Amino acid sequence: MSLKSVNDILSVLKKQAQWQEQPFPRLLHCWTEVVGVVVAAHTRPLSIQRDVLWVATSSAAWAQNLTFGRQKLLLKLNNLLPSPLVDMRFSTAGWQRPIDQEKLLGTVSPSEHPSYLGDMNSDRSDANPTRTNANAAFEDWAKTIQMRSHNLPLCPQCECPTPPGELQRWNVCAICASQQFQG
After folding, report:
1. Which strands sit side by side in the sheet containing 87-91, from one edge to the other?
2. Is the dihedral of CA 123, 125, 130, 131 positive or negative?
């Protein structure tokens, strides 16, 4: 039985930890150092798949430029990563940051949509969702539509009841507006 020093054991454990370390978090940590501040502002590593690094770029020009210089970047990155990369792919796909998307989605409420009419179901006291007859269900639906559209202004083009927001935005209903946009 051989005795090893604590330093020997720690160095073996350190090497083992580096070997087991996932390359992508380590790559994210050193990305700015490897590519520089300017390039880092226009790129974002997305993933490593089959030893290929996928990087999102802010424009197609950045993607093309970095594709030409990827060999130098691969050499720098492979010196810092536990397992070497085979290649790098650059694309504008994935550049939109999820945080920006959440902000965009979070700022629009349903009441801001031009077709919003408010909660029309709250004042319906005779609603019966358990209709077994198709004709009765259709009659209920028709009554609901009539109640919703009874006090709405008419579209000047097709004379259908139209939410006021649509008239303010397009001067016609959404259907007539979409036909204008297509033609």
Report:
1. 43-49, 52-57, 87-91
2. negative
Q: Phi, psi (5° rounding) for residue 54?
A: -105, 125
- Give the Cα separation of 146 and 144 in Å (integer): 5
Three-state SS for 106? helix
Assigned superfamily of 14-96: DnaA, N-terminal domain (3.30.300.180)
Domain spans of the chain, in order of start: 14-96, 144-183
Encode 11-68 in three state secondary structure: HHHHHHHHHHCCHHHHHHHHHHHHHCHHHHHCEEEEEEECCEEEEEECCHHHHHHHHH
Six-digit token pair at 7? 């330093």
Render pLDDT for 18-52 as a digit per residue (tens, 0 to 9): 545 567 888 888 899 999 999 999 999 998 888 89
Length of the chain: 183
